[in-house]
Each structure stands twice: as structure tokens, then as C-alpha cells.
Hints:
The protein is of the alpha/beta class. Helices cover about 40% and strands about 20% of the residues.
Amino acid sequence: MKILFLLPDFPFPASTGGRLKVFNLLKHMSPMHQCDILCFGKPDKTLEESFQLQMPKVNVIGVLPLKTGFGKWFIFVANFARLLPPSFAMFSSHEYRNAIRQACASCTYDVIHYDIINMAQYAYICEHVASVHSPNDATSLVYMRVTKDLVWGLKKLYYLVSIILLRRFEKKNYHSFTKVHVVSLPDARYLLGLDSNIDVTVIPISSGQVNGEARSGNSHPDIVPTRSLRVICTASFENHAIADPIYDFVQTFWPRVRGAFSDVEFVILGKNIPDTMLLVFQNTPGVKVLTWVDDYSAFLSTADVVLVPDRVGPNGAKTRTLEAMGLKL
């Protein structure tokens, strides 16, 4: 088959859950099928060359910059007038639309893969081609869960408006895709509740090649470990439902853990950590903060315990839980 992947981000390095999903998909499909990718991102020749070394059969037909500044806000207003979700603005591009048309004119694709809901806005361009939409979750449902834990303010208002417009888009457009892929039954049931004609399939989250492979090192609770114990937590601190429990853990429970196990360390792999929290973390004995790792799976496999803050079901909690379970942690 000939498959065109429309992606919101360049899938290398596979340092995030979204990139890892696409990376694994391309790795397993490209030896058997023609896989072309058209994505947003910052063009980087060195990065593309490194990617091609690992994926020699994947054709990168374009990496286009995201909308920023005035152009993004102009599209934001125009999209709002058309009742489109606010998140579409950053990924709405005349150049990207033209690139899709050129790609489809030069190749007769069997399938077009639209990754996450922000890419679904381009489905009208090639309606005659079989389509797979992979939002992973029912996006409006995720926003509902996140909004419950937000205090009243502009951010919560933004989310509430987004919920209405995302739900409207899902209800109006998802039935037109040949297949919609989500990762859980609750997401599938929610979408079918919007429109019973949506052809939705549940494909559970996996952890790639590490799935089902026990990590090396101590795995028996009665055996004294030969190295320091390590607790790992990965999170985006933009979400208070995630950030606050981690901060509370460090302030309240971590001293007790250190009291019982003096050589244990707590490693936080996080982004957008507020300066006040970062200062507390850096001054807490046994706590280490990272913002980047080259190999996420290898990093996670060094953990003895993975801490997953899940006060009200924050976005991504189930992913991190299953990644840890896949590594037998």
C-alpha cells in the first residue's frame, strides 16, 4: 500500500508519546508499504538524516513550520467565526494544504493517515482516498476531564469553549473517516454516542518493543538491591491536576521515603515546571530534575517505581501507567 501520514510533529527523536507512536508505526509498516510523511516542525537537515538512517524506506516529503505570531491569531479569529476548535489555528496552513494537494497529485495513495484531531481539518482535501484518523482519545472528552480540575479564569473559559467546538467537530466530521482509532472503550463509546455511524476501532496503548519485557536488575521485593533505588515521574507541569500532586508528594511524602531508604532518588522528567516548584525540587535532598532524555524507553526502564499522579484522570496518566506496566515496573 501507499500511505501518506499527515503529522503535527516530526516523529524523531521519539521523545514524546505522540512521536513514539508514529515512530513505531513507521518502523513496522515501512518495510512492507510505501510510507510518506508530511509534517509540521522546524526543518533540520541533520535531524532528518538521523531519522533516515533508522527509517531508510520512509520518504519525508515536507517539514513545514507551525503558524506563530499575527498569522496564528488571524487564523484563530477566522476559525472561531467558522466554529472550528481554537487548537486548529497553529496547524492551519495554506502551504500545508498545497503540499497535500501536490503529494496526492504526484502519487495515488491508498490510505491517508490523519494524526490527532488538529490534522483532521485537512480531510476535505482528499475525500476520495481511504482515511484513518488517529486522535487516540475522544479529544472533547479529555478536555472535559482536564477542565474539572481548573480554577475559574481565562484558561478554564478557553477549555470550555474548546469542548463545545471540539465536540461539534467530532460529531459533524468523524463519520466521514474510513476508520477512527482510539485507545480505550470509554472513548469509543463517547464518540458513538455523538454519532453511531462513526466507524471507531479501539487499539490499546502499548510500549513498543519493551512491551512485555522485564527490565534488568532487582525485580523481587525480598532481595536487597545492589544499587540505589530509583523513583521516576514524567509529567507536563502545565496541568495542575498533575503538577500539584507531584509537588505535594515531594513536600509531604518524599521525606518519609528518604527516611526509610536513605539512598533512594526521585527523578522528575518534566516540562514547563514553574520556577517556584523547580527551586523546591532542586533544594530537596534526593530529588533530581531533567527536562530531556534521548531514549525515553531506556530511561524509564531504570526505574524501580514509577510515580503516576492521577488525582482526577489527567491527560496522559493512562499512557504513563501502561508504559510502566509494559516494562514490568
